[in-house]
């Protein structure tokens, strides 16, 4: 462990467990008052030339609304990705803690390790790691708040991404 | 102009001027209560393995504070960039309008064209395009608010980036 720490320059708190955590993507996620996420996607296409890469819809809501709510639409602008989502009951608390509705999604193959490392460095866990339809488009999602008030979603790379695309 | 519109498939509102606007980068910028941006950078290094790419300091503040305020520190996480900045008098209004202090920086070679296109699509201009030490690390920066409440900084690619790096 000491050797690993030395190799990776790990801090005392972050510990050896998570010393090898790496991230494959960082995407800002914008939460929009439901059901306006679709309008927002159209706006970002018109305003910034955004290209829609994928879209996943909220399965819970399909029957209740004329417009299915968007769980996560991934857009490319300037070579980077943003995610746009309708605020749902599930994500409402996330947006409240996140302030204006921008949270930062970090994709990693080691969700638990990444969360442990962040907590070791001083972040605060918010809730449990949940499987399935989290706000990010990955399969497993955990949430931490950093000491400066920003919310980070730590999620596994999007197994749902690429499917369910609608214009 | 009609010819340009036809060539570029420009929308009626966005107009020919901005039909060819393209973006070279999109970076979330996190505004932190001054002078904690340096602590935040250290935290993101420890928590997420962030690598600092560049840092520019606020020239106005160097004499008044023990710690120079950070105008913009660029960090790489998961192959993407985020910017971390101390909130200054200049950026305070930006953070207020941006909510929790996350704004989205879009870099482009055509700041005016990009702003015109965004306004044509329904964004609202906030202030003038300013030269110099804007919140992004580019040379010229304009600000628009989209219809969903998010603030975008439209800036020229960072001519100051890469310089002034301090650990």
From TrEMBL, chains A, B:
InterPro entries: At5g48480-like_C, At5g48480-like_N, Glyas_Bleomycin-R_OHBP_Dase. Gene3D superfamilies: 2,3-Dihydroxybiphenyl 1,2-Dioxygenase, domain 1. Signal peptide: none annotated. It holds the Pfam family At5g48480-like_N. It comes from Lupinus angustifolius (Narrow-leaved blue lupine). The lineage of its organism: Eukaryota, Viridiplantae, Streptophyta, Embryophyta, Tracheophyta. Residues 105-153 form the Glyoxalase At5g48480-like C-terminal domain. Residues 29-87 form the Glyoxalase At5g48480-like N-terminal domain. This is VOC domain-containing protein.
């Amino acid at each position: 462990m000491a050797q690993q720490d030395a190799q990776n320059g790990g801090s005392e708190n972050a510990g050896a467990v998570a010393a090898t955590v790496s991230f494959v993507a960082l995407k800002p996620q914008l939460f929009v008052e439901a059901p306006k996420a679709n309008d927002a996607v159209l706006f970002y296409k018109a305003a910034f030339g955004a290209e829609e890469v994928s879209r996943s819809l909220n399965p819970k809501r399909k029957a209740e609304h004329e417009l299915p709510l968007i769980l996560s639409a991934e857009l490319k602008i300037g070579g980077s990705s943003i995610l746009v989502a309708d605020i749902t009951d599930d994500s409402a608390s996330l947006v409240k803690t996140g302030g204006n509705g921008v949270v930062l999604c970090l994709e990693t193959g080691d969700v638990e390790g990444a969360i442990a490392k962040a907590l070791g460095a001083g972040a605060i866990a918010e809730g449990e790691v949940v499987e399935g339809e989290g706000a990010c488009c990955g399969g497993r999602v955990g949430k931490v708040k950093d000491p400066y008030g920003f919310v980070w979603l730590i999620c596994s790379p999007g197994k749902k991404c690429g499917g369910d695309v609608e214009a």
